[in-house]
Every structure is written in structure tokens, then in C-alpha cells.
Amino acid sequence: MDKILRINMGPDGEPTSKTEPVGDYAGLGGRGMTSAIVAKEVPPTCHPLGEDSKLVIAPGLLGGTTGAMSGRSSVGCKSPLTGGIKEANSGGQPAQMLGRLGYAALVLEGRPKDDTLYTIRISADGVEIKTATALKMKGNYDTVENLKNEYGDKVSCISIGQAGEMKLIASTVAFTDMEQRPARHAARGGVGAVMGAKGVKAIVIDDTGASMRSPKDPEKFKAANRAFVDGLKKHPVTGQGLPAYGTNVLTNVVNEAGAYPTYNFKTGRFDGASAISGETQAETITARGGKATHGCHRGCVIRCSGIWHDKDGHYLTKQPEYETVWSHGGNCGINDLDAIAMLDRLDDDYGVDTIEMGATIGVAMEAGLLEFGDAEGAINLVKEVGKGTPLGRILGSGAAVTGKAFGIERVPVVKNQAMPAYDPRAVQGIGVTYATSTMGADHTAGYAVTANLLGVGGNVDPLTPEGQVELSRNLQYATAAIDATGMCLFVAFAVLDQPETFQAMIDMINSFHGLELTGDDVTALGKKITKMERDFNTAAGFNKTDDRLPDYFRKEALAPHNVTFMVSDDDLDTVFSDL
Amino acid sequence: MKIDVFLYATLSKYLPEGSTNRSTVVNLPEGACVRDIIEELGVPEKSVKLIFINGSHARMETSLFENDRVGLFPPVGGG
């Protein structure tokens, strides 16, 4: 992984590509790579869809190795949703293939002269760029089917659906899984719109002839990888809970804790939670002949995903994740797993962020466009997005735009990005992360739900402000570092609880790259990435008033705990005071 | 006193036959604590990681009151 592929979509005539040595960016991976390139090369005040903007796709430090869990791809840019820096990452096969082909990053640059769409094929033979007129306004599923017919069943694909082509700011970049389905997404912040603005419909990766990357110290790497896998299998969350029930096991936990945002963040418990819980979901999947345990990429040993079949036993979508089941489910008062799975499928096909879309429909319900609980109405609204009607374009621009268009105050966003599935009043640590993350409201950026609700990595009372700033800060730095390795963030459940598993992860990086990093170096890496991102955002015009939750979280008490968000503004301003 | 008990994920198997909504009502004497619930239902103590009483974290020795809602979980995570 010693080269960077740059494709300029802007020149007269045809797009051009060049491969260059990794140079100044050596030693970076994943979010570390994407944020470094964006911070250095993208003017913070540029238009995210304009000629100076860039889209960066990078495997992590361990992408393309035999290391377990190392299949995440980071997608970075200036976000058209937040206006700040963005890194959204995804599972699927492409990261490993890019890594094996030797690419540390792929950078799309420039502005196309017209609306010609292109596909890019990357293989051991080099780069081929072709027009893709036949794929215009096709969904991700049709697109990948076409690419499969043309390039065979061994390739992986990175693509956008109709939403990305329309440059809607809730649009995603899709990544194919082991079955060549575009079911994994770098979903947040409108990264699909930036790919659409570059005129790139799909990137096909063919790693035929490429071999696994070899470690500097193969024996040590093998031993570290084994210890790491043992640690993941031994920890009850990564070894039992996630494989058996998937991420949606959280529905009952968060609901029981009174922190489950219901009816557009009006209350903290949903009567229909049991019907859409991970337990019910797993039972339904098994009864229909789907798969309740399934990995999104080769080398995953947690396998939190699954395969959802419709009532007739046919594949519809991957097992919808907790965040999706919440956003389209409880947040909208919908208690029907089949409707939620259909919404998941439509979102994946059009290429829109399931969290943003569910939150947006919740806002539309609040505005009276449809009733809470109206599953058919919700499906029809998402179809409007795919069709690109004026209403669909408003909805596909996310919760903040929709709230403005319909004059609604209760819009759960930070930096214009919709909040995920934990009410910040009843999980105050995650509220600190929502408020201060460089990404906008993002649970993964510093998942304080661990110590607030799950008893992982310590215990911090979720209902009071004490200890939340420190908890969120430490998690935000640790997460930035994990996102740079290309490892799935779910390794954190085991890494936070088991020092020997944390050490095994560091040993993997060290033995692979010939380094001698310590735990402190990992924190330092996370701080470095966070600082680059904060500096970019400051230069883009953000200040401390952007690190706030919407007012109503301080004013409206959330049942059943009747609690408001109590971490003070002054305390929020100290989250990154050590940078 | 009557306590509403919810057993989730792998703990659901300890619910009495015929239970719905992953819950049951347990009758306990005044002064009982969470540990009395799991003894009553035969849930191994080491399989319980998270205890919520009326949505707040609690412990095995936390005292119960009439109509409390108790939710018990094995170790779980997601996101």
C-alpha cells in the first residue's frame, strides 16, 4: 500500500488518472488518510460539490492483510450536509481488494465539464475509465447487477444510487459485501453527492492476481492476530451477543433505559419496541430461512449482520441494523419489521443514509405530512426520493432542510446531521459526542453508550452531566485511531474491557508495519486526527456555537426520566481543550 | 408485592412457559431485592450483566417496591 491513485474528472476530453507514491501521507490509513488529504488539499471554504472539492477513499492500515476485522473503507470529503470535514466508513469487500492492489488511497478530483457518468475499473493491470450512460439513474442493486454481468462475480463495487446522482445531501456511497450486494454503506454526511458531483457512478475493483499484503514480521503478526481473534471470541458482546442478535439487540436495552427516541425524540420509550427488537428480528429471520449471523466482509469474526428474507422467503436486504430499525421504526412510531426492511432496501438502493432518512420522515410526521405509525406512507415518501420529485429532493436533503421547509422546531440535528438512536437527555455522554464531534451528530464518533448504558469500559451514570466530557473525549480519540486502522469499531467492546486484546491489536499494527507503537501512541494518533479535523472545521467557519445540541433538548424534559440535557456549554467547550 | 420482570436476549429462556412480550409478573415479599427475582425464576446470577429498575441502573442487592419494572440483560452491545 505505497501508492495513491488520483483521478481527475475535470479535464477537457476524458478523465485522466495517475498513480503516485504515497509520499507525505506514508503511515496513514483509513480516517487518518482521508482526513489528512482533505485537510491538506481541500480548501475549507470551497463548495463541497465544486471543482476544488475531492472525494478520498482509503483502506485502513491493515486493509488487505489477513488481519481479522480489517475490512473498513473510509470515505472522506468536505461534507455537503454539514459543511465540515467528513469521514464515513463502511464494511464490505472493497477495502481488502484496494489494499491488496497496493492502493493506500483513491482520490477523485476536479469537476466534470458535463453530466457524463463514468465507471472506473481498478485492477492489477491498471485503471480503465469508461462512460456509463446505461447506468444513469439506476439504483445500486441494478447498477451492481450490470457491473457483475460485465466484469464477473469476483469483483467488488463502490457505487452511488439515484440520490448520489441527484447530489442529494443525505446520499451514500455503497460498498458490496461478500455476496456482491450493495448493502454496506459509507452513509453519513452526503458523501454520495460528492461522488455524484465528480460524475462517477461506480468503481469496480478486481484484485485478480494480487496477493495478501505481507507483514514485516509474519510470525509475530500471526500470533497477534490469533490473540486478537481469541479476545473477540471470548468477550460476551463480540463473541455471543452481536453474532446471535446483531446490533438490534440494543432496541430492548435502550428502550428499557428510557433512552429510545420515540415519535421524533418526544419520549424515551416505545410501546412497539418488542415487535422490532433484535430478539424478534433474529427469530423472524431464522423462521424464514434467512441468516441471523453473517459477516459483511471476509475476515470478520464478529458477524453482527444477517440476511433478511421477505414473507415469501426471498432475499430483500441485509438484516437492518439497530440504527435503521430505530430511525424508520420507533422514531416514526412504526412497529413492523417488514416495513422497516423494505425501507432499508429502498434506502440502500437509492443510496440514502438510513439514519438521516428515518429522522427526516420523523420530522415530516411532526410536520403533519403523514401520521406517526404510517408505514405505507413512510415507504411512499422514500420512493419520492428515488424518483427525485420536488418533495423527494427536500426529504433527500435530510432532517435539517426538511425541518426548515416545513417550519418545524423539533429537528434532532447537530451541524445539520441527524442524531442516531440514543436520546442525548437520557444518555448524556452521547449527547456530548453529538454536540462536539467533528462529524455532526454521530454515535460512532465517541460511543459513550458503552459506559452510560452497557457497562462496558466502566460505568458512568447516563442521567447526570458528571464525567460525560471526559468519557466522550477519550472515546473520540480512541475512535479516530481505530478508524485509521481500518478495523470495525465493534472491536472496541472487547478492546475496552480486555487489556490483552487491546495489546494484541497494537501488536498487529506493529508487527505488520515494523513499528513500536504503545497505547499512548494510539491515543496520540487519535488526537492528531481530531485536531486536523477540528482545524479544518474552524477554517470552514465553525465555532463553539456549532458544538451545541438544539435548544429544545435543554427545555423539554424526556419521559420516563423527565430529564433534560444538562452538560453545560462551558463544559462542552472543554472537550477538546487539550488539543 | 408484584414486580414486572423483563428478561431479554438469552435470558428469555428463563421466563415461565406462555409468557408474552418477554415479561412476567413475579410476586415477592416486601423487602425483596433483585437477587430474589432471579432465584425465583432460576436465572444464573453470572449470566446477568445489566439490571434496570424503572429505567435506571441497579444491582442485585437493590431493594424492590410494588409495581417496579425490572429489565435484565446478558452482556450486549451494538450501535
Question: Could you explain the architecture of this structure?
Answer:
The complex is a heterodimer of chains A (579) and B (79). Chain A is an alpha+beta fold and 579 residues long. Chain A has three domains: 3-205, Aldehyde Ferredoxin Oxidoreductase,  A, domain 1; 215-245 and 424-579, Aldehyde Ferredoxin Oxidoreductase Protein, subunit A, domain 3; 247-419, Aldehyde Ferredoxin Oxidoreductase Protein, subunit A, domain 2 (Orthogonal Bundle). Helices cover 40% and strands 14% of the residues of chain A. Chain A has helices at 30-41, 94-100, 140-151, 162-165, 191-197, 218-234, 236-245, 250-256, 278-287, 322-328, 337-350, 354-366, 375-387, 390-395, 398-405, 428-436, 449-454, 468-485, 491-497, 499-513, 519-539, 552-555, 569-572, and strands at residues 3-8, 16-21, 55-59, 73-78, 85-90, 103-109, 118-123, 126-131, 156-159, 173-175, 184-186, 200-205, 291-294, 305-309, 315-318, 413-414, 417-418. In chain A, helix 1 (30-41) packs across helix 18 (468-485) and helix 16 (428-436) packs across helix 18 (468-485). Chain B is mainly beta. Chain B has one domain (2-73): Beta-grasp domain (Ubiquitin-like (UB roll)), CATH 3.10.20. Chain B has one helix and five strands; from the N terminus they run E-E-H-E-E-E. In chain B, strand 3 and strand 4 form a beta hairpin. The longest helix of chain B has 8 residues, at 34-41. The relative contact order of chain B is 0.31. At the A-B interface, helix 7, helix 8 and helix 17 of A face strand 4 of B.
